[in-house]
Amino acid sequence: MTRHARNCTAGAVYTYHEKKKDAAASGYGTQSERVGKDSVKSFDCCSLTLQPCRNPVITKDGFLFDKEAILEYIITKKTEYTRKLKNYEKQLKKEDEEKKELAEAERETNLIKFMNREKNITNGAKSDASHQSSSISNLANGKHKQLPSFWIPSQLPDAKISKLQKPDPTVYCPLSSKPLKMKDLIEVKWTLVKDPDDKKSLIAKENRYMCPITHDILSNAVPCAVIRTTGHVVTMECVEKIIKKDWLHPLTGDKLKEKDIILLQRGGTGYALTNDNLEAKNARPVLQA
């Protein structure tokens, strides 16, 4: 019997602890690590630039963007669509030209066959071989222009020409993958925390914004919502306890509907129960016993 000590090496069994220890020392196995607070996007940062928004706008699904960044994204996608559409139209034009060339070649072939048939009838049975080149070289009769280049992958004999598909003109949200239009973006209005004793800049402040109704500090740990009609950011607690009682805007008194409340997507809180996935994994070669 071997001793059941943690660092015992006299046993014939490769224990779990020894395997884990050797994997950590040799660099094998998958590493899992909790995502820290510094790795999580803040609730008031753009989903593209990951920086605090200067002109924040929000989509219908609650994703926050900087207006300049999302405008540049939409323009880039539209430019890409225009480029793909031009290439697709060139492909269609080339296919039409190839069809016309094939039809013309077939017409000429039929004409030559008809002329040869008429010539054979008038002059008797003659062999067509005397009028054609008897060379069997693969460079004769213009075949040198049709030979494939074996050092170019696209010109190999078994290379298939990939056809371009017609591009989709719709611009999709980079996070929700749903259609995105500029007119659907809603401007967001933050309510600054009024603290006369805090002389720090806005970016350096830990508590930057608050709910304009309850004056609760907004953070990743506080579920927030945006009122679509005015763009004010309030806490979900304010929505549940105040707004949903009579469905009136607390600041303007306007009538609200359920679709006017847009849940603001948070970057993360550090707690797995309130987020989808806050664990990062690094896959490495597996160490087998």
Q: Characteristics of this structure?
A:
289 residues, alpha+beta, Herpes Virus-1, three-stranded antiparallel β-sheet, 3 helices, 27% helix, 9% strand, flat, nucleus, ubiquitin protein ligase activity, Znf-NOSIP, Znf_RING/FYVE/PHD
Q: What does the model show?
A:
By secondary structure, the chain is of the alpha+beta class. It has a domain at 46-119 and 165-187: Herpes Virus-1 (2-Layer Sandwich), CATH 3.30.40. It has helices at 16-26, 67-123, 236-246; strands spanning 31-34, 56-58, 64-66, 186-187, 224-227, 233-235, 261-263, 279-282. The protein has a 3-stranded antiparallel beta sheet. A 3-stranded antiparallel beta sheet has the order 6-5-7. A two-stranded antiparallel ribbon has the order 1-8. The two termini are 21 Å apart. Mean pLDDT is 79; it is low at 128-133.
Topology:
Blueprint: H1 16-26, E1 31-34, E2 56-58, E3 64-66, H2 67-123, E4 186-187, E5 224-227, E6 233-235, H3 236-246, E7 261-263, E8 279-282
Antiparallel strand pairs: 1-8, 2-3, 2-4, 5-6, 5-7
Shape: flat
**Extended strand count:** 8
Provide the low-confidence segments as ranges: 128-133
What composes the largest sheet? Answer: 3 strands, antiparallel
First-last Cα distance: 21 Å
What letter string, H or E per element, gives the SSE order? HEEEHEEEHEE
Rg over C-alpha atoms, rounded to the nearest angstrom: 35 Å
Give the class-level CATH name of one domain: Alpha Beta
- Mean pLDDT equals 79
State the CATH topology of one domain: Herpes Virus-1
SS summary, helix count: 3
Structural class estimated from helices and strands: alpha+beta
CATH architecture of one domain, by name, is: 2-Layer Sandwich
Strand order, main sheet: write it out.
3-2-4
Overall helicity: 25-40%
Strand content bin:
5-15%
Protein name: Nitric oxide synthase-interacting protein homolog
InterPro entries: NOSIP (IPR016818), Ubox_domain (IPR003613), Znf-NOSIP (IPR031790), Znf_RING/FYVE/PHD (IPR013083)
Keywords: Coiled coil, Cytoplasm, Nucleus
Subcellular location: Cytoplasm; Nucleus
